[in-house]
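From the methods appendix. Each design record in this collection lists the tokenized structure first, followed by the designed amino acid sequence. Records were kept in a plain field format so they could be parsed without special tools. The example shown here is representative of the layout used throughout.

RECORD:
FOLD TOKENS (179 positions):
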């Protein structure tokens, strides 16, 4: 998993629990203490161990943590990919173009990050339907990112999820509308 995720987990922990909580999370996760960098890939198991430790420390489920983490990380993500976002785009435009404009760039950069596969289609002028497929099943992170993107653009996203990998479906389908 790309180093952005553990970096943002650390930021999430330090923001919510204080800087002193990070070493405790690393200890609980039983992962080596290290400096995470965004251009390096880390084992999925290490990231999941960090999330499990945060869950144990806060009492929140991993899906709840992932959604909150997704919202928190949007300003950093927008900053990182700002050159790939066209002027005039708003929430639904960014979401509808994430696969082609952002994920494909990551894949072509030679990273092993393996971002989720997103199939996006417009369903009317005010709704985008995203089919999310990933062996990691981190759809709550995607929902948090969607909410964070909407907040970034001064909008509010409504998300319905008729199918979800966490409920045993083959893929997650997210219907997103904004106001």
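DESIGN:
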């Amino acid at each position: 998993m790309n180093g952005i995720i553990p970096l943002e987990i650390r930021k999430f922990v330090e923001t919510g629990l204080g800087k002193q909580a990070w070493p405790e999370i690393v200890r609980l996760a039983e992962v080596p203490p290290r400096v995470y960098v965004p251009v390096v890939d880390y084992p999925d198991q290490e990231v999941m161990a960090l999330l499990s430790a945060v869950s144990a420390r806060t009492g929140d489920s991993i899906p709840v943590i992932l959604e909150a983490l997704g919202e928190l990380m949007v300003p950093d993500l927008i900053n990182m990919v700002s050159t790939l976002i066209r002027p005039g785009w708003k929430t639904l435009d960014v979401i509808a173009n994430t696969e082609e404009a952002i994920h494909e760039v990551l894949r072509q950069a030679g990273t092993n990050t393996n971002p989720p596969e997103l199939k996006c289609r417009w369903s009317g002028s005010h709704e985008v339907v995203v089919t999310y497929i990933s062996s990691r099943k981190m759809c709550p992170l995607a929902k948090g990112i969607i909410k964070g993107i909407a907040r970034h653009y001064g909008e509010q996203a409504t998300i319905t999820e008729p199918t979800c990998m966490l409920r045993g479906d083959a893929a997650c389908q997210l219907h997103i509308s904004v106001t």
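APPENDIX NOTE: The chain has two domains: 4-60, 70-178.
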